[in-house]
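Please decode residue identities from the backbone states below.
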């Protein structure tokens, strides 16, 4: 999949470089955690010059936000399978919550990164938020109450912060999302 960079459109060669950088970032996170992640260390593993890496990513937060955006964008929307509205919403929330659940260092880094002030992170945060909103709106169905949609977005965002702060695992976060979404929807 050829993703458009948050900073510019990419040629095939540039897209390959960005792909190598995002994969290397996950490797560094697994070994060093978010505190040990630097754009320079990622560049070394990806086999590119640090200056090249910085042409694509303004900060480590930007790099981690891009990793999450790519995972979200590449993940299919959960299939309806005859679920009712609550079941569809729960499936969407669980799917998004579990995208990085089996990679605790990445999951924690995503929370840290998405809270950043970097303009490139803000751009990705908006794209991620719109994608999650669209998925939830689709799950809610035609004529849904916008306040319910916003409550579900707040539920997800609050849960992400709680999990990132260490108040449970991301798998537990997915379970709590399900319980809380049912309270909102039923």
């Amino acid at each position: 999949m050829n993703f458009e960079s948050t900073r510019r459109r990419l040629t095939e060669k540039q897209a390959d470089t960005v792909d190598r950088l995002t994969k290397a970032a996950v490797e560094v996170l697994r070994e060093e955690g978010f505190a040990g992640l630097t754009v320079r260390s990622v560049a070394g593993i990806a086999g590119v010059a640090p200056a090249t890496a910085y042409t694509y990513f303004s900060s480590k937060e930007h790099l981690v936000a891009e990793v999450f955006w790519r995972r979200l964008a590449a993940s299919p929307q959960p299939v309806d399978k005859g679920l009712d509205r609550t079941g569809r919403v729960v499936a969407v929330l669980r799917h998004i919550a579990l995208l990085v659940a089996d990679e605790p260092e990445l999951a924690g880094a995503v929370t840290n990164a998405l809270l950043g002030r970097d303009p490139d992170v803000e751009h990705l945060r908006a794209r991620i938020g719109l994608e999650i909103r669209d998925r939830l709106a689709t799950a809610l169905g035609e004529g849904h109450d916008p306040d319910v949609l916003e409550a579900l977005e707040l539920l997800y965002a609050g849960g992400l912060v709680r999990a990132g702060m260490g108040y449970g695992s991301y798998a537990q976060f997915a379970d709590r999302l399900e319980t809380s979404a049912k309270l909102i929807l039923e």
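Observation: The chain has a mean pLDDT of 90.
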